[in-house]
Amino acid sequence: MAGSVHLYGYRYSVYSRTVRLALLSKRVEHETIETNPFDELPTAYLALHPFGRVPMLTHGAFQIFETNSITRYIDRAFEGPLLQPRDTAALARMDQVMAVIDAYIYWPMVRQVSSHGFFRPLTGERADRAEIDSGLAALKPALSFLDEIAAEGEVLSGCEISLADWHLAPMMDYFVRTDEGAAALASHSALQRWWDRVSVLDVMRATDPMGAGPFDK
Ligand SMILES: N[C@@H](CCC(=O)N[C@@H](CS)C(=O)NCC(=O)O)C(=O)O
Asked: Domains, the chain, ranges and CATH?
């Protein structure tokens, strides 16, 4: 498949950052088109993404949405370091971690704890303590699960990067900006070790949504 690559994403979106991390890891030249899914979206966008979310990727005439489909596509379509383990068990772990993140982690970590504990105070919006507490409670089994996975070492080792790292890292980055999130992570030692290694990588810095650079290459 030939053609230029366009990422429709929103600067503060964790899933958009996941795709950018995959693109940067593979050194794929791309253009980012800032698309705020919380604003009214253009009809042309909705025609391509009927669910009105970000991210969406186009590569030449090909277009695809759903983050885990996009990142797997990027890994297969472009040269560069492999982001999916060759080993069957490790690949299954990667798939499992990404599915768990989507099903059980995104909402409490991002939309509850980080939104109410970090974003709303930053922008002067009313934050709801009950949302933070409910998110933290929901995350207890999820953090234990991730800690076991990190300790097992097939993925989330902090050494061999896979798509599971890029699925989780943007969410963790917001979570640890809250006192409660940082404390919760610190009580899961293998997961904390993973974060200590991953959070300092150049691609993480280059995609920091709160960094000085605009949401571009
Ligand atoms: N299942 C989608 C989820 C994408 C998603 O929820 N993106 C958020 C931004 S991180 C969004 O577009 N939210 C807009 C909304 O909830 O209306 C994927 O994996 O790409």
From this structure: 5-82 (3.40.30.10), 88-204 (1.20.1050.10)
- The answer to whether residue 128 scores a pLDDT higher than 90 is yes
Could you tell me the strand order of the sheet in which 31-34 lies?
31-34, 5-9, 56-59, 62-65
Asked if 15 and 55 touch (Cβ cutoff 8 Å), the reply is: yes
Cβ 180 under 6 angstroms from ligand 1: no
Question: Which tokens in the block code for residue 34?
Answer: 């800032």
How many secondary structure helices (H) and strands (E) does the chain include?
10, 4
168 CB under 6 A from ligand 1?
Answer: no
Residues 143-190 pLDDT 10s: 999 999 999 999 999 889 999 999 999 999 999 999 999 999 999 999
Indicate which residue's Cα is closest to atom 13 of ligand 1: 53
Measured from the CB, is residue 85 less than 6 Å from ligand 1? no
- Cα separations in angstroms, 57 against 47, 78, 147, 186, 206: 14, 14, 31, 35, 19
The answer, yes or no, to whether any atom of ligand 1 lies below 6 A from the CB of 112, is no
Q: Does residue 216 have a pLDDT over 90?
A: no
Q: Are strands 31-34 and 5-9 parallel, antiparallel or unpaired?
A: parallel
For ligand 1, whether the C-beta of 15 sits within 6 Å is: yes
Closest protein CA for atom 12 of ligand 1: 53
Q: For residue 10, give the ligand 1 atom closest to its CA.
A: 9
